[in-house]
Amino acid sequence: MTTVTDMDTRGMRHCETTALGALLRHEGLDLSEPMLFGLGSGLSFVYWDSKSMGFPFLGGRVKPFELTRNLAAGLGLELLVQETTSPRRAWQNVVAPIDAGHPVGLQLDSYHLDYFGSKVHFGGHVVAMYGYDDHDAYLVDTDQQGGAVSTSLTSLAQARAARGPMTARHRSFTLTAPRNPPSPQGQIIPAITACADAFLNPPIANLGHRGIEKAGRLVRTWHQRTDNPRRDLPQAALLMEKAGTGGALFRNLYRDFLAECIQLLDSGHLRTGHTLYTEAATLWTEAAALIAEAGESDDARYLVQAGTVLCDLSRIEREAMQALSRLGSESPGAIQP
């Protein structure tokens, strides 16, 4: 059995930030999950539907691995990414750093993992791997999935080789911190304003605040969109609240990130953004509950109420991001300890 020493295997709420936290703690950089999410400019929104999908999907974060790239760039981390179509080379890309004492991040399809409780295909799942033996791989996943977990090498190979939406070609990656990394506090404003700019100026109507407004209109039609509302509507609500989002479609994580930032920077715009995202987080949980109730009761009137809440959310989040986008134009003072 080969394992990386001094590995902190605690799980968090979201898969990519869980993996990032595990890799960075091994590098001596211990940041909270909300800080990892926020410094990675992770918040977003997408209304995703296509003819090939059985039911629409509401996403609350940037696309898989973009958060990792953003965080590495902001903190001056060396990010080494490897992809290949060869299963043999893919395995060597993993065991080489582990044998050298470094954990590795993997992007894969969670459906194939032995320990995964919900058998749903998701090709954007991210884990940290820190060991292996002749039969199993040892991983760090979310707290919901068990934190320190193991899966057979066969299942890991299947998960990494999977093809479909959001999958990557056996993607693995390592993070190395520089000897004198930039202060995370100094990256707060660039990370927030970049996130706000993307949210306020989406290239298509399915993204950002425009996407939430679109969802508010279309969610009212979801009862006709499915032949099994008792299955599909609660499932959609579950994905919003429980599927590694930290609750409220990642808004709880961003709210908590902004709360941490307020302790570090004195800014009225920051406080406004935090107040509005606190309200937004509550409303996202309410919207999910209404969507679930529409399915459980087979009553489409709850979807009309959910649509109203989503339209309110489009306005609230737009106002929040407008305030946060102004962080770059003011001179917030650091709060002295």
From TrEMBL:
It holds the Pfam family DUF4872. It comes from the Bacteria. Residues 155-324 form the DUF4872 domain. InterPro entries: BtrH_N (IPR026935), DUF4872 (IPR032369). Residues 14-142 form the Butirosin biosynthesis protein H N-terminal domain. This is BtrH N-terminal domain-containing protein. It comes from Streptosporangium amethystogenes subsp. fukuiense.
